[in-house]
Each structure stands twice: as structure tokens, then as C-alpha cells.
Request: fold
Amino acid sequence: MKIIYKDEYVKLIQGDCIKVMDIMIDKKYMVDCSIVDIPYGNVSKNGEERAKYTGQLRKINKEEADIVTFDEIEFSKRLAQVTKGSIYIFCGIDQIAKIYNYFKDNLKKDWMARLCTWHKTNPSPSNGQHMYLSASEFIIFAKRRNTIFNGHCEHNVFNFPCGRSKLHPTEKPQQLLEYLIKMSSNEGDEIFDCCFGSGSTALASKNLGRKFLGVELQEKYCEVAKQRLQNIKITIN
Ligand SMILES: C[S@@+](CC[C@H](N)C(=O)[O-])C[C@H]1O[C@@H](n2cnc3c(N)ncnc32)[C@H](O)[C@@H]1O
Reply:
């Protein structure tokens, strides 16, 4: 575990999020809001093979970014312990019930939970002639009772296009992350993303004057995030 980047707003750690959260719990260190895009596990396909048999236009290969390296309940338990306000967990279809029910049932005394949808307004046209386009991803929103919420009467469907930057196989759009940050934090608050990938949440937080603490397992993604934060233009093939 090591600190790979630090400035006045942002601190990035390369390491395992479970170990980092255990240290935070030991030290009683809490953040204001957590936004984490965890590995979905089920969407990873062998791109070459799948493309060959289904004739799809695009390879779906999420590399290491999609490998689940922790138990989702152990993860959620720790995330709740280190978060003072709201939590957003982007997750795959098979993970929704497990995580949602954990907040709804086990933590219901202190937390409220709602399933939200990111509607991708520019979905990939793959297989569109055979079935509906895949234009949705799911986010579990959990909020400690009586904590900040700036999205009065907003709907739980968020309409934002996906980016096409290819910095990371499962990169999330900065616009969407900025929206979530604004809904659940104030300037100067600290945002936490313990699976930060290419650092999209770090950029969004810094852009909005929030502090940011992040953890990522893979060295290559840490490097991408570091370079994005240092404002170096990067191109990945
Ligand atoms: C879905 S991706 C996040 C992508 C990110 N939202 C972005 O915009 O670039 C999930 C990330 O979690 C990382 N990861 C997987 N297991 C981890 C662990 N135990 N601790 C920290 N990071 C982990 C993966 O390497 C991957 O980059």
C-alpha cells in the first residue's frame, strides 16, 4: 500500500480497498460521501470469442477492471463504517440485490436505500437490430438518516451520455459524477472512491472544490489517474 499522488485536494493510494478501509475504521477516520464504481464481475467476456460467435460490432473485454476481488457485503459493511453521509455504489445486475438488501435490512435503523439508474443517452448500437440497446447501469444509493441531500424531488434516473475516452475499460463520465457529488456534499467536503480506476471521481471532486481520498489496486490505472490529475494529455491504444 503506498501513496502515489497528493496535492491540496487529492490523495491517491495504490492498494486493496478492504485493507485501507480497515485502517480507516481503526483510526476512526470518516469521509463525507463515498462514490464507488466496483468491478461488476459478470459483464467481462472474452472479447475475441464473443465477437466471433455473435457478430457484434464491438469487443467487450473489461480486463482486470471487472474482476471482483472482495465480497460485496464485507465491502458495503466497511464503506458504511467510513462514510458520514451518502454512498453511491455503481454495480452489476447480479450485485444489486445483495448490496441493496444489506443497506435496506441490516442497516435500516441508520440508513435509507434506493436503487438508481444511469440512463446512457448515447448507448452503443451493438445488437440493436435484435434487441433493446443496453442503455442502463445501476447505482445503489444509501444515505444515513438526517444527513445532507441537495437533490430535493429529483428522480432516481440520471440522464448522461457515456464518454468515449478509452482511458479505462469501465470509465464513468465526469458529468454524472459531478451531479452525484453536488447532490450529496458541500464545497470542502471529502469524497471517497476506493476503486478509482482512471480517477474520474477524483477529477470531478477537485473540479467542484471537494477533497478526495482514493484507492486503486492496479498500478497501471493509478498511473493513468495520476497523469490526469497532473493535467498531462494521455493517449492509450
Ligand atoms: C469499474 S472500475 C472503476 C472505473 C472508474 N470509475 C473510472 O472512471 O475509471 C473498478 C476498479 O476497481 C479496481 N479494483 C478491483 N478490486 C479492487 C480492490 N480490492 N481495491 C481497490 N481497487 C480495486 C479495478 O482495478 C478497477 O480499476
